[in-house]
Amino acid sequence: MRHNKRALSPIIATILLIVITIAAALIIWSMLGTFGRTSASSGVSIVTASAELQPDRRTLVLKIAVKNTGTTLLNGNVTANVGGTTYYLLTNGSAITTTPAAGQIISFPAGQTIELTTSVTVSSAPSSVIFTARFADPSGKIVQDIKGVSVVQGG
């Protein structure tokens, strides 16, 4: 007595197994991917930065624009490292070399951009300046951006 049973060919079975495996991997990957994603509640970005040495070769004009890219208020400071000296850039257009006091900490809301410009006196012409924007959100999380720029000769 002979039964006439039909089965899948080995090639079709292999293709089905590969498709099922890929589908399962994609489902697991998408489920695990949502656990690793976090929203950017705080962030800072240096939009533009420049350092221009004036014709007297002693005055360096520093300009920087910093954006709060997050969704929370940030408090902190912006510094410029010029030839090994760190200058804290203040919103009143001045710069100091000591850590800013509480009233001199920069505070700016989410989505806003601040622009700071100051002049500092240098003893010798630097070739570059390193700007650092370092801020903390209300939870204490530190966010920062660093950008180095070449000093250009003003005229």
What does this structure look like?
- By secondary structure, the chain is an alpha+beta fold.
- The chain has 2 domains: 8-37; 44-153, ApaG domain (Immunoglobulin-like, Sandwich), CATH 2.60.40.
- Helices cover 17% and strands 45% of the residues.
- Strands 1, 2, 3, 4, 5, 6, 7, 8 and 9 form a 9-stranded mixed beta sheet that branches.
- A hairpin with a 5-residue loop joins strand 1 and strand 2.
- The longest helix has 27 residues, at 10-36.
- The chain is elongated and about 105 Å long.
- The protein starts with 9 loop residues before the first helix and ends with a strand.
- The mean pLDDT is 87.
Helix content: 10-25%
What gyration radius follows from the Cα positions, in whole Å? 28 Å
SS-based structural class? alpha+beta
Number of strands: 9
* CATH architecture descriptor of the largest domain: Sandwich
**Strand residue content:** 35-45%
CATH superfamily of the largest domain: ApaG domain
How many structural domains does the protein architecture include?
2
Q: Roughly how many Å apart are the termini?
A: 104 Å
Text of the CATH class of the largest domain: Mainly Beta
Which stretches are low in confidence, meaning pLDDT under 50 for 5 or more residues running?
none
What's the tally of helices?
1
Order of helices and strands: HEEEEEEEEE
Give the CATH topology of the largest domain. Answer: Immunoglobulin-like
Mean pLDDT: 87
Shape: elongated
For the sheet with most strands, the description reads: 9 strands, mixed
